[in-house]
Structures are given as C-alpha cells and as structure tokens.
Amino acid sequence: MLWGSRKTINMNYFPDEVLEHVFDFITSHKDRNSVSLVCKSWYKIEKYSRQRVFLGNCYAICPERLIARFPELKSLTLKGKPHFADFNLVPDDWGGFLYPWIKAMAKSRIGLEELKLKRMVVSDESLELLSKSFPNFKSLVLVSCEGFTTDGLAAIASNCRFLRELDLQENEVEDHRGHWLSCFPESCTSLVSLNFACLKGEINLASLERLVARSTNLKSLRLNRAVPFDTLQRLLIRAPQLVDLGTGSYVHDPSSEAYNKFKAAIQSCNSIRSLSGFLEVAPRCMSAIYPICENLTFLNLSYAAGLQSNELTKLIQHCRKLQRLWILDCIGDKGLGVVASTCKELQELRVFPSNPFDAGNAAVTEEGLILVSEGCPKLNSLLYFCQQMTNAALITVANCTNFIRFRLCILDPIKPDPVTNQPLDEGFGAIVRSCKGLKRLSLSGLLTDQVFYYIGMYAKKHEMLSIAFAGDSDKGMLYVLNGCKKLRKLEIRDCPFGDAALLEDMGEYETMRSLWMSTCDVTLGACKMLAKKMPNLNVEIINESEQTESNLDDSQKVDKMYLYRTLVGHREDAPEFVWLL
Amino acid sequence: MASGCSKNVESRPLLLDLIPQRREWHHVKREDEIKDGSSEEKKLELRLGPPGEENWLSSIRNNTEGDESLLSPGYFSSSMKNNGKLAHKFPCPEDNHPVGVGSVLSTPWGKNHHQQQTKTCSFLQFPSTTAPPNSLPFMAKESSQPCSNKVVDLQDAERKAFKPPANTAVPLNTSHKRTAPGPVVGWPPIRSIRKNLASSSKLSSDSPSVDPPQKVASEKPGAEPNGKGLFVKINMDGVPIGRKVDLKAYDSYEKLSTAVDELFRGLLAAQRDSSAGGIVNEEDGEKAITGVLDGSGEYTLIYEDNEGDSMLVGDVPWHMFVLTVKRLRALKSSELSALCLGSGKQGGR
C-alpha cells in the first residue's frame, strides 16, 4: 500500500528514542551487529543502546576500543584460551588475562553489571578491582578459569553490595581456606545464584547457613565437597524454594537421623528442576531423592563415580521429564536403554568416561547410543565417550535428525569399526548428511579423507569442528575449508594436514574466529607466510622445546599453531614460548 | 577386480607367509623383521587417491597387475587394532595419497569393493576380520611405542625418496596415521578434574569394585578410605612418632612435599633438641624440610605400594600414585642406597 504512493515512510523520521526502543527487542548479537551496519544513524543509536557484548576471543580487540565502541556496556562475555587448553595442550601463562579489561573499564567508568568469563586468567587483583569499581555489579560467572584464590572471592563478597550471582564452574581456585563466605555482609540478601562446587577447601558452614537463610531470592545453590550431609539437610529446610541444587558430599548412613531429616526436607523442595553434585556419594542412599525426580529437567551425575549401574537406572526410572542428562559410563548400555525408555523428553545427553585411560574397558558401546537415539526423539545434543563405534550404529543414529551438537569420543582415537574393520567415514557421513542443523561436530575413530569429503559436502551449518588423529592428506582439510562456509572454530590435532592445506585459501581464516593445529604437518615457513599475507590474522606458535626462533628453520614443523582474526594486531602479553609471527 | 584378487593370491603365497611375520613383529619388535617388512610393503602398497579422483581406479589396476595384492598390508594391521590398543599403522610411502586402510575398502563408490573385501577376507581366512576383537591375544602384550618409532623411521626413509627431506620434528608428526605411543597428552579430551574420578570414588564408597584388582586400593590395609579422605601413614627416619596424611587433600607432589615439611618440621626439631642433649643450636631451630622429591635434601620420600614394594615418590603421575600408595616414609637420603628399591633405581637419583 505504501510502496505505490509517492511518499514513503522513512524510519529516520522517528526520534532516536523510538528506534532505541525498537532495537531493545533485538537481542541476538548477530542481529544487533547487522542493525549497526544499516546506516550511520542506526549505527549510532545501536552503539549507545548496546548493553550486552560477547567477545569470543579476548584478543580480537582491545579493551579501549571495545569501550569506545560500546560506551554503555553493562554485560560482557569474554573467552580467552583456545578450547584445547581444557585438555592441557596449552601451557600455563599462555595468556587470556582479565586484568587489563577490568582496569580499562574501571578507568572509563563503564557501569559494568555482569561479567562472564571462560578460560581466562583471573587474578585476585582483578577481582578486587572489579569489586570496587562497579557499584552496580550483579553477576560474576567464571567457567574454566584460573589464577585466583579465595581471597579474590572474599573481595567480591565484601564489596559487591548488590551481588545476585556468583557462579564458579570448574575453575582452578587456590583455596586459602579463608572465610570468604563470611565476607558477605549481613545486609546482603540479594543472592539468587551461588555455585562454589569447584572449590576444594573447607567452608564456614555457619556462615553458609546464615547466608542461605537471609537470601530469600536464592534459586540456585551448588555446594562443594566440604559441605557435609548434615548441613545440606539444614540448608534445604531454609531454602525450599530452590530450583537448582548441587549437593556437596552425599555420604551418609541410611539408618541415621540425618538421613531421615534429609528425606523430610527434600520433600518440601518441590521447585527443584535441576540436580547436580554428588561429588562424593555413598551407594544405597539415592532413594532419598526419588520424590523430586519426577520434576527434574536436568540431572548431572557425572562426578558420582561411586554409583553403580543398577542404582543409576533405578534413579533414572523416576525421571520422566528429564531434558538434560550428564552421566558416567558406568551406567552401561543397558542403563542407557532405561534412559531411552524413560526419558522421552531428553534433548541433551553427555556420557563421560569413568576410566579414561583404560580404552578397553569403557562400559558403553554403540549399543547404548543406538538405544538412546531410537528412544529419545528430541535428542539434539550429544557428548559420548565410548569404547567403540560402528558405521552401522552411526547410520542408525543418523535417523535422529535433530542433532545440533554431536561429539563422539572413542577412547582409542584411531579405532576402526570393530565389526567390519573399516574406518568410520560412512557413519559420520550419514550423520552430517541427515542432520542438516548440525553446528558442532567432534570426530574420533579411524577416519580417512573420505569423512572430510562428506563434511565439506553436507555440513553446511557447521560452526565448530574438532578433529583428532584423522585424515590422510591435505585434501581432508581442504574439503572442510572449502565446504563449511559457516565454520567459526576449527581445531585439529595429530592429523597429516600440511602447508598446502593451510595456505590454499588464506582469506577463509578471516571469516572464522580461530584455527588450532597441533602435531600436524605445518611448517614454520608456511606459518610465516600466512602471517605476512594476512595482517588481520594473528598467527601464534606455541613452542615448548628449547629452541629459539632463530634456531628453527622454516622447513621445520611447528608443534602448535593457533591463529585468530583480530583488529588490533599482535598482543602484548604473550609469554616467551609464544612466537607472534 | 575379483579375478585379479584371486590371481594375486595364487601367485603370491608369500602374502600368507607375511601374516605370521607381522604378528611376531608386533610381539617381538625385531628390527630386521621390520626392515624386511618394509620392502615387502612397498611392493604391496596400493596407491589410492582420495575419493573423487578419476584415475584412482586405474591406479588400483596398475598396482594389482604386478605382484601386489588388493589388500595393503595396512589392512591386517588395522584389524589387529581391534583389541583397543593403539597399534601402529604400516607406513605408506606416498605422503599425499597414503592408503588409509579403510579407504581401500570402504569407499562408497563401489559396492563391489565391499564384496571384494569379504571375498578376500574369507579367501585368506584372516581370523580377525570376522572374529571379535579379543581373538588376537598376542596383541594384548604389544607395547606400541618402540614399534611406532620404527614405523616412523621407515616412513621417513621412504618419504625422502618422494619429498625433500629436512623434517626434524617429533616423529609423530610424520606418520600419516597417528600412532599414539601409550597415553597421549590431552587424550581422551576430558578435563583434569575428571581424570581421577573412578579411583577417588572407589576409595570413598563401600560398593564392590568392578575394576580389575590392580586398580582398587581400598581393600588392602594401609590406606584408610573414609568418606572424606585417603589417609596414609607417614614416618620419618629418626622420628619415633608417625603422622597421617590425607592424600586427597593434595593434587600434586609439590603439595605433598610441602605437607611433609609442615608435618615433620616441628617434630624433627624437637627430636634434634632432645638428641643434642638439650643444647639448642639456634641456627638449626626449625629448619624447613626440602628436597624430598629430588634427592637434594636431607630426606627423600619413598612409599610402599599395593604390591608391597618400596618405590621412590614422584615417578608416576599423581593420580596413579594415589591409586597404589599404601604408606609413606621419609628416608634419610644417605641411607637410600642401603635400601633395595622395588623400582630398580638404586642410590637415589
């Protein structure tokens, strides 16, 4: 109707506030990035209204430029080290330091309220500065970080008056056994989420109880191993409104008074939807939690190595509404069959190895996976450590076309299909062919270039690919780079991919966040060439041998290379063993 | 292709002879056998381009016309991998088109290839193709590390014929199929937290262990599991009173070493005071106990493992140590050589 008339409505006639209001409804980072590209005025409005920023690689830009770009920043997510740092492939001190960010934001009077960090090095100093610089600070989430102690936590507790969330997931924290929990002032009643499960040391239990008692909004509480069963029971009485509970030590005598009290307490916690912890668990005590199982949507028993398969299955039979399950492989194939027949709402399954270094004895095989894929129609996310896998099984599993994340780890990384002795190319090929929405894939088992051919051809939506001990030649890597146009992160270890593959399409790397290659066939000379030709990439070599850069000649293979796109050139905090080409 | 196959086998009974040799190689790892193997392999090598290349079919035909078998020797080695151990892969001379074992057999193009595979399998009656993985007991004894190095050396030699040399990087880089020698850094891809789960929980739970006996430390006396810790006795030479230390409170040898210092520093000083007849030498006072791990200090840490042997602390990764340690002892370093050490390391480091 409007197009036919001579007057057209121009969005720019609206006052800025209106546009800003419209933009408020646009929450996805990608969409907001697109909005800012439309025109100058939209860029400006979006810039000043942007409050949440996600930086997948903290070295892609520097703090000062970030602050200049988004001066109204309130919520920042930063990721530091490459993913393979989780598996000890990246030496300590590689980088990813938080301090410069805090310092810059403090100086610029950014009103930071939320900070979420992954694989960063967080010093006590930075935590202290954080706690003192941002009066409205509300939420700190640290995932797989390191470098801080409980002293830093004490600073956060003492100084962040409006703290709502303190969530520590799988961090390396030096425990000074101080009383950081006691540092929460009596006036602090705003806590909604408190997770300290990864702390190894003792906790002041009395302080914890008082804190929980006065935090009437507390919805999520995850305790560490040092919190004994008695205390757990008392905490539950004070916080029956909990939605997410992580137990500490779950070791007790089933005939004891404490156990009976616990059973009574947990019955009134009918809001609990998510259960984790069981960092220490005695068997035969799980029946106490049966009453809350029927409402659970997330169950994490992946640290509960003391539970055997029959106990696990009895428990799971009560969990009909489960959507996410993290479990150890001691559940066994049969146990997974019980999951398949009980948990019809299951979307995410993670099966971790209980004996990671004993490749011959993992308790789950392809059988378990088949059962789950056949029984759980909503399954879309998988992490599965197993002893073996067959092509036939993967082809069957591929009938479950909803997979967004598919990570398979066969403990023997080059194991073929044990029935046919063939590589698993066909199986994975079937997965990528059928699962058109697949975004993340991790491969293992015996694999040739063929599987990469399939990936390049079918995996159009792939964003992250992890490859280990696979492929035969450069062609493998080239299939991937040429075919997967949406690839953001590619990490490769121990594959025969060399210079030809690396240098074939250098422009490709600017469309990706990062590339990791270790123990491949890439030479120093090729890395240097790449660095020279692509000024918007940082090409870093991690060298752990004694040789210095001058000793190594260009034809020598590099052990570890990590490259990423960046707007700010070489970083200044690289340690000696990282060569910036 | 099928006819080519049978013809090949008839004209090359040597192929069957190779099979027992190969088994022995895995078991015995003799260099001369390997070298023989390599020349055989070269002849038998099947050069295949990756799928999609027009001329790969013709290259197969070229290769099979001669004395070569349809199956690369790699085929046999891959089936030997079924045991779950990381076996080495036979080297392939061509860098860029090595024969992935599977690629010979599993290319999607030809259903006929699959048929050939089964035909040749049954023809040659190689047991592992149809038998379950455990039918190759000899593989259980294989330690792949020395083999893989040799495999890689061969690869290097062959590679030089095709490519300019000058690769001096770690051998693993050069093999086209990764042969992981024993535990590989960063594999399986799990966080450190998850690595010791089974061991630490078995010590805290009272359920029967399903693991092979050598993994379970809790049933033997000496290490007291309770819900909260793994307490082992620790004695220091010259100090009559022992201590108990909770190994679960530490995750590294350094921390244990610090703990030893904390536990015994005072006791040792007190002991010295009394033995010196009450004359306190102020310089001695309470001296820190250091160097217990590397032989540089006055005392050296040793332990008794679940087999009753005395072992030097620090050789194995921490999580393995925790699994097998029964009791600790801080021995005077000067007396170390007098003790017969189970690990065979005598006289300290």
From TrEMBL, chain A:
Pfam families: F-box_5, LRR_6, Transp_inhibit. PANTHER family: F-BOX/TPR REPEAT PROTEIN POF3, PROTEIN AUXIN SIGNALING F-BOX 3. It is found in: Nucleus. Gene3D superfamilies: 1.20.1280.50, Ribonuclease Inhibitor. The keyword Nucleus applies. GO terms for molecular function: auxin binding. One of its GO terms (cellular component) is SCF ubiquitin ligase complex. GO terms for biological process: auxin-activated signaling pathway; pollen maturation; SCF-dependent proteasomal ubiquitin-dependent protein catabolic process. SUPFAM superfamilies: RNI-like. SMART domains: FBOX, LRR_CC. This is Protein AUXIN SIGNALING F-BOX 3.
UniProtKB/TrEMBL annotation, chain B:
Homodimers and heterodimers. This is Auxin-responsive protein. The keyword Ribonucleoprotein does not apply. PANTHER family: AUXIN-RESPONSIVE PROTEIN IAA17, AUXIN-RESPONSIVE PROTEIN IAA26. The keyword Nucleus applies. It holds the Pfam family AUX_IAA. One of its GO terms (cellular component) is nucleus. Residues 29-46 have a biased composition (Basic and acidic residues). Keywords: Auxin signaling pathway, Nucleus, Repressor, Transcription, Transcription regulation. Gene3D superfamilies: Phosphatidylinositol 3-kinase Catalytic Subunit, Chain A, domain 1. Residues 229-338 form the PB1 domain. InterPro entries: AUX/IAA_dom, AUX_IAA, PB1-like. It comes from Hibiscus syriacus. Belongs to the Aux/IAA family. Residues 199-209 have a biased composition (Low complexity). Aux/IAA proteins are short-lived transcriptional factors that function as repressors of early auxin response genes at low auxin concentrations. Repression is thought to result from the interaction with auxin response factors (ARFs), proteins that bind to the auxin-responsive promoter element (AuxRE). Formation of heterodimers with ARF proteins may alter their ability to modulate early auxin response genes expression. Residues 28-61, 165-228 are annotated as: Disordered. One of its GO terms (biological process) is regulation of DNA-templated transcription. It is found in: Nucleus. Its main location: nucleus.
